[in-house]
Structure formats: structure tokens, C-alpha cells
Write a structure and sequence with these properties.
By secondary structure, the protein is α+β, with helices and mostly antiparallel strands. It folds into three domains: about 150 residues, no CATH class; about 60 residues, no CATH class; about 25 residues. Helices cover about 30% and strands about 20% of the residues. It has seven helices and eight strands. The chain has a four-stranded mixed sheet. A two-stranded antiparallel sheet has the order 4-5. A hairpin with a 6-residue loop joins β7 and β8. The longest helix has 28 residues. The chain is globular. The N and C termini lie far apart (about 65 Å).
């Protein structure tokens, strides 16, 4: 970065937060939670905080032959809200061309980038700060990903179809299948995210009559819960593969 730009990399340290107003991801609860979990990272204001965005477009136009081109862009959130969304600070990291969507195989294309980000998080990198005329050990963290819902399913591996489409409710939802269509409907499920005394929770006129939503919003999954769920899924896949192989041997 240039001498003028590098001075803005510590903008978030001097930014004043107004209660109840979010003008930058720095004001969010996710940013504050990350600082509390990783105090050594947050102690160095020059450490880089990144966001990863994936999006698809057709380079030949919507009426041309079918073609799929996926872009993977990294955004630096150390900068102010007026700078981090500018084109010059959005780094095109990967271009995935092809005749069709990479679907869940997008993880294969993302692997080199993820390896480099993991290296910047764990191994760190010696960096020269041109504004302070000194070297420092820089780390980088991928704070979040930005996708539309189908791309979210591709990047995260979570199925965004049928009744388990909601990544927050998971299996604890009240989704149902439409009678004349093989489509999952989440009508009446969103009221659980409202405050307990919200007027819509007891609304019999505009929502299903038999459902008076007294359910609270689903619990937030911690990292430990996610790892336990992941381990159980891996174990289930290994068992199913062993059963399939045993069946093939028997046949």
C-alpha cells in the first residue's frame, strides 16, 4: 500500500461507536466478540481483517450461450466504510470459469486461498510499515463471507434446499411442504425471531390460526457445538461408506 493508504489501516482503532448505530462492521457484535476471543490479535491494530465475497456472472450476457464465471473477492475491513467498498481496495483473488457452476466443488478452487489465509493467521508474516518506518509481525483473519443464499450453500457446504435450508434453525423449524407443489414453505416460521412481546406473535388474522408463536429464536451455535456436529457428520459418512463397501463385497 502507499503511504497515504497505510495510515487508514488503523482507522478502526480511533473510530468512535455510537450506541445503537452501525456505520461499519467495527460497530457490530461479531467484531466485538472476535476481539474478546482473540485479544492478542486485536491488540495489534495493523492486523488485517478480511471479508470474502463470491458471486457469479455471465461474461457473454444473459442471452448468450450458457456459461458460468465465479469471482472470489477479498475486502479489507480495517479501512473506513467510505474506503473498504471502493474498487481499488477490493482484491480479485480467484476467477473460476467454466460451462457450468462449480457447485460444492468450489472448495477445491478455494483451497489455495484458504491455505494462504491460514498461514497468515497461524504463521504470521514480517511486514514493513512505511508510515512508521518499522517492521512488525502481521496477522490476517477472515472475519466473514458475503454471498447470496445459493452461493452460501456452495461455500459453506450447508444444503440450502428443502426443510433444512435455514442455517440458524436447522432441524428445529416448522417448515412444511406445500400440498400441490414439492416445495418447502417457511411461512409462519419467522415470528420466532421477534421479541417475546411483539404484536405479531399473537396475530391470528394474518398468520396461521393454529399457530401462536411462543417459540423463542433458535440458540446460537458456538464453535464447540459446530465442531461436535461436524464430527458426528464425518462419523456418519464413514459408517455409511463402510456399510456400502460391505454390501458390495457381499454381493
Amino acid at each position: 500500500m502507499s503511504l497515504r493508504t497505510v495510515e487508514h489501516m488503523t482507522w478502526h482503532q480511533s473510530h468512535n461507536t455510537v450506541d445503537g448505530v452501525i456505520v461499519h462492521p467495527f460497530d457490530s457484535e461479531a467484531w466485538k466478540h472476535f476481539n474478546s476471543v482473540h485479544p492478542h490479535f486485536s491488540a495489534e491494530s495493523r492486523n488485517v481483517r478480511l471479508g470474502l465475497c463470491t458471486n457469479r456472472f455471465n461474461v457473454f450476457g444473459s442471452f448468450a450461450a450458457p456459461y458460468s464465471c465465479w469471482l472470489v473477492i477479498l475486502t479489507v475491513y480495517n479501512l473506513s466504510s467510505g474506503m473498504c467498498m471502493r474498487l481499488e481496495f477490493m482484491f480479485l483473488s480467484i476467477v473460476i470459469p467454466g460451462l457450468s457452476s462449480p457447485s460444492r466443488n468450489i472448495g477445491v478452487c478455494l483451497r489455495p486461498l484458504i491455505d494462504e489465509l491460514a498461514q497468515l493467521w497461524s504463521s504470521r508474516a514480517l511486514t514493513y510499515d512505511i508510515s512508521r518506518k518499522q517492521n512488525f509481525i502481521m496477522r490476517a483473519a477472515l472475519m466473514w463471507t458475503i454471498n447470496y443464499f445459493p452461493a452460501y450453500g456452495m461455500v459453506s457446504g450447508w444444503s440450502t434446499h428443502k426443510k433444512l435450508a435455514c442455517p440458524y434453525c436447522m432441524e428445529n423449524n416448522k417448515a412444511f411442504t406445500l400440498t400441490n407443489r414439492d416445495k418447502a414453505s417457511f411461512f409462519n416460521c419467522h415470528r420466532r425471531f421477534l421479541s417475546p412481546n411483539h404484536m405479531y406473535r399473537m396475530n391470528r388474522k394474518d398468520f396461521l390460526l393454529a399457530e401462536l408463536k411462543r417459540m423463542l429464536h433458535p440458540r446460537v451455535f458456538l464453535v464447540m457445538n459446530c465442531m461436535m456436529l461436524y464430527q458426528s457428520m464425518v462419523t456418519l459418512c464413514l459408517v455409511s461408506n463402510q456399510v456400502s463397501r460391505s454390501f458390495l463385497v457381499l454381493v
